[in-house]
Batch of 2 targets.
Target 1
Amino acid sequence: LRSCSPGRARLTNASRHAYLVARFGDIYAQERLDAETLLRTYVSDMEMVQRIIYIAAVESFHTAKMAYRHFKMRVRKTLSLGHSGPESLEDTVLDYIVRHEDLYDVQASVNEVIRSMNTNPKISFPPETDFIVISSLIRELCRVAFSMQSLIPPLDIAFGIDGELFNETKYRRSFDSDFTAPLVAYHVWPALLENDIVIVKGEAVTKR
């Protein structure tokens, strides 16, 4: 194993937090719209396009969090064999992960996300093509989600369900929403949470 400097994860936590929150916003503003444009060439229904992208985001976070858990377990098992301090084993593990995030097999996560999307009953795709067309969006989401797990505390996305009561603190309404409707018809983008508190609003469509 390559050596790691003690306390690196904690020392860089604030700067990594700021970068990852900004990157999440950039993905929403750029990669999401690129994926939307690409999907519109295959799917005419805008609601289905937005549902596909939202589910891609949710599945990317879920898959990356699982990958992080397994990665951390492997690192802890290896480092515990020769660990002697002065920092705690947990800090040593975190420092190693932060230094070597390039060892994360992001392509395996992308493949897993696409597999999950293929069996999701809420979304469909023309049979002649595949969700792989938005793999670049999925890859960036997986990378960001994986890195967010190494923050103290880690960041996560809000769980949203169709038909839930619209929450002003969690979401902003899409421009084509019925602004008097109290319920979420479907979600466009997830909200970002820190300790279950919204730090970046998501986007939802409200309709009667």
Target 2
Amino acid sequence: AMEKSYVSVFLLLVAISCALAAKDAGKKEAKETKETTAKPKLPQTLSRGWGDQLIWTQTYEEALFRAKHSNKPLMIIHHLDDCPHSQALKKAFAENKDIQKLAEQFILLNLVYETTDKNLSPDGQYVPRILFIDPSLTVRADITGRYSNRLYAYEPSDISLLHSNMQKAQKLLKTEL
């Protein structure tokens, strides 16, 4: 009798563990299908709407590393999702074919949070602001927008100035390095 109860307890444990394994496998499958269907949205999360076909870096550290090793200038866009000025600039930036084409020549990073690097806020932490960093990892404080109180701010009407500043960031690169 004792042996029979051991066998039945053993079989019960086997049945439970099989049921749990099947349940886990089902969860895993559901999770995998969720992840695979969400995959095409991956670039969107990094671009945050600034140019979905562009290659964006995830972190400031990664961006610095890539700028240094690719010998390309880095363009950092500080913005906030709930800021109307950021949204307006993003729309102008994303819709401007020349900007999007030129942006391919840059290491790109857009941040919705402040970094601890004080060099990225030379005149304050406002949004939107765009800074350029050359491959020697020097912040180009000389490439500014048209506002004296927010040197690195751009508005949708400044998109051509931004384009020429992007060209300037590239020209300086070629002549100085």
